């Protein structure tokens, strides 16, 4: 058992990207934030499935070339090997939860 406070962790890119509250041993759990216009490179996972639950704002998540606009309260489930790209095309920040499972230390493959 453990407790982690979000304020004790930092986003990967200063004010954006993932902020991991837990990495392994069975899953990852992160708070993810993107400011207006920011994105995260297209990629996929060989083994891990990924879920995004939108807490605040609006975000576009492109999965295998199909764009999905998600808003607060919506969840998107992404299967292994599905290429996904995240971009905030809105005028304000977006905040969401990301979960990845089963945990793999390295399982992200970038796509051009």
From TrEMBL:
Gene3D superfamilies: Jelly Rolls. Residues 31-98 form the Cupin type-2 domain. It holds the Pfam family Cupin_2. InterPro entries: Cupin_2, Flavonoid_dioxygenase-like, RmlC-like_jellyroll, RmlC_Cupin_sf. This is Cupin domain-containing protein.
């Amino acid at each position: 058992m453990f407790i982690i406070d979000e304020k004790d962790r930092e986003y990967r890119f200063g004010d954006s990207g993932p902020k991991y509250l837990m990495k392994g041993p069975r899953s990852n759990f992160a708070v993810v934030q993107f400011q207006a216009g920011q994105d995260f490179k297209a990629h996929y996972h060989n083994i891990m499935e990924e879920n995004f639950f939108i807490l605040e704002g609006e975000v576009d998540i492109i999965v295998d070339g199909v764009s999905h606009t998600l808003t607060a309260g919506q969840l998107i489930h992404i299967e292994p090997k599905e290429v996904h790209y995240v971009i905030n095309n809105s005028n304000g920040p977006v905040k969401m939860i990301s979960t990845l499972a089963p945990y793999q230390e390295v399982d992200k493959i970038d796509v051009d």
